[in-house]
Design brief:
By secondary structure, this protein is an alpha/beta fold. It has ten helices and eight strands.
């Protein structure tokens, strides 16, 4: 069982949901973002998601876009992703996932990316803009290196797509609470609960809800 799956199961055994925290890498600078991630781990998150900046963040809302632009303008490079993962992993016991758009991975080289992420102590990738049927290289390389591959399931996903996502995902299925970009919401879409139920029908052991979870009431709603 992977470190990510183990962390989620441990939280469940304690009668609570797993808390997964996201931070952009390189904002406002690389070292500060590393320190922020370590602080988040020390504050009690069960899993960390680190997001390298990308020039075309189509899923991200204005807050993350602003952080992304600042990191790129400050000179972020791909190797900084692995530096951040390595330092955070060395200083905490929390599994570290990288949440990245797929194009930078392809440009870097899928096999090389898998090797470097594994060597840095990373737990795997969350890939929001690619589905398993278009990710044969990543399926092979993640299996070879033991990295988790976390795919997204959306309320609009067909039953056939959900079945495929559950079959090919490891760690957990990233369950999109609502359609649209990241960012604060006044309330969560009721579709999230229905989506989790659909994923369970196809055998998903771990479904973690993200995007728009903005306050304590939202968290309680997710855990009900």
């Amino acid at each position: 069982m992977s470190a990510v799956a183990t962390a989620i199961d441990a939280a469940r055994a304690e009668g609570r949901g797993a808390l997964i925290g996201y931070l952009p890498i390189g904002y406002p600078d690389l070292q500060t973002s590393i320190e922020a991630a370590v602080t988040l781990a020390e504050a009690g998150v069960d899993i960390l998601e680190l997001g390298p900046p990308y020039s075309d963040p189509v899923m991200d809302g204005p807050v993350i876009q602003e952080a992304t632009n600042a990191a790129l303008q400050a000179g972020f490079r791909m190797r900084d992703t692995f530096t951040a993962v390595r330092e955070v992993s060395a200083r905490t016991d929390v599994p570290v996932l990288v949440m990245t758009y797929w194009n930078p991975v392809v440009q870097y080289g899928v096999s090389r990316y898998a090797d470097d992420l594994s060597a840095a102590g990373g737990a795997g990738l969350i890939t929001p803009d690619i589905t398993p049927d278009a990710a044969s290289d990543w399926l092979a390389e993640s299996t070879r290196t033991g990295l988790d591959r976390v795919f997204l399931a959306a309320p609009s996903s067909t039953d056939a797509r959900l079945e495929m996502i559950v079959r090919e995902t490891t760690g957990f299925v990233y369950t999109v609470s609502t359609m649209g970009i990241t960012g604060e919401r006044a309330q969560l879409d009721a579709a999230a609960r229905a989506l989790v139920a659909r994923l369970r029908e196809y055998g998903a052991e771990r479904a973690c809800v993200g995007i728009g979870v903005s306050n304590a009431d939202h968290v309680r709603s997710v855990l009900e």
